[in-house]
Amino acid sequence: MKSIATPTRILEIEGLSARYGHVEALRPVDLHVDEGELVAVLGPNGAGKSTLMNAIMGLVPTQGQVKFRGRAVPRRAPAAAAGLGIVLVPEGRGIFAPMTVAENLELGAYLLNDKHEYARRTARVLAMFPRLKERLAQTAGSLSGGEQQMLAVGRALMSEPKILLLDEPSLGLAPRIIDEILQKLGELNRQGLSIILVEQKAPLVLKLANRAYLLSVGSIAAEIDPRTIKSHDELVQYYLG
Amino acid sequence: MFNLVAQSVLSGIGIGAVYGLIGIGFCVIYNASGIVNFAQGAFVMLGGMLTNVGMIKLGLPLPLAAIGAIAIVAMLGVVLERIVVRPLWNRGSTMFVMILATLAAQIVVERITQIMAGDQPRTLPVFTDLPPLRLFGFAINFQFLWILGCSALVIILLGLFFSSTKTGKAMRACSINRDAAALQGIRVSRMLALAFALSAALGAFAGILITPTQYTAFNVGVPFAISGFIAAIVGGFGRPLGAFAGGILLGVAQALAIVLLGAAFKNVAALSILLLFLFVRPTGLLGPAK
Question: What is the CATH architecture of A1-77+200-241?
């Protein structure tokens, strides 16, 4: 399914750990994503999945290394990471609720200074999420949960990320909406976008993922090949150790 | 009597607009960072003082001296952010520590000004030196019109900046959710420096507008800062338009207290309004910003 040559690493993480004050929220983690891969990060609540995402972006103080296409990603500089094309749709979506949908999308393309390219990207995002088109002038806070998640993903796409990180996009959404969003993510991945998808509900994403990491109490417990997971029970085995 | 009261309401609106501008300065920094910048008064004082220095020492015409003063004070705002606020910010200091640091900075600026410029009060010429307009039996002086016109212009320009420019929107995004803003590639620390520059320029402008009707000296900053702070609280902290309305309410209340109760009641009126709002409507006229 991927190119036959040795795959190149888009993201390589070595010994990345994070702490909040004296609490070690993430023990040193190694993981990697190849170009064009969709990698799932699974694990129960409190396993450190969100901390891992925030640590990659440099939103929290970290130790260890994050390399993007072989270059070190500066630490504690999320704006610089975004500038490299590493874009996170954070836990809780992080949309700018008092601002309009259009303004949210515009800020997604904050680093872009080309009007034509901006129009092209907007058209692409609105074609992907037509519902946002009807709501452009509304405040983002007035959208339904599903629409807000679409806005969060759409805003991230406005920057044309090289690798997209999503922190539990399914949280609090109806199954039908989750399916719709996951289907879009699958499409994006088939178009070549590398993705890290964090999920608590593992069965949702194992169908999409090329590989999966299982995170448990702040460290990687296992690396899973989704094709080997035959049943839900087998996954439960992983969770329970 | 009616005439006297109405006349003092008018002058209260004028000074209230200045309080409002100072209050907006508080809001701009608060929205960008959560910090209440008590050095705001220093910017107001420096606006008047530097314009005076520009006119007297350098012989500049008033508009040039004023623009120069605003630019210098804006730069000082950035310096304050760089050397006082950011080191604490990067160290993860609590908000309380940063607020106290701005208060210390206020005192430092005040004392340096006293050493360099002396303690004598200074003033600026009125912008238009004509006798007051007579309208419906009221005397309206031109400085009052300048204050109102300039404040309205500043508010419109500020509104356009925040609603129509990318940088303005980025600043709003920072005030809504700093982490999410950073994830879009917005450099939050740069926005913070910009907020200090903007807020300092607003303070300086307010100081220049009010100085011709009063005077300025090294120590006028704190009373102005307190009035601007009350204006911001009355308006709902972080709401620029609210702060402006709050400033006018405060200015009118003070003017009425002076004419009806005596000059000693000026501060009583101001602090009573503050207490009234804190007890009865702590979210201010327009409600909280977030």
Answer: 3-Layer(aba) Sandwich (3.40)
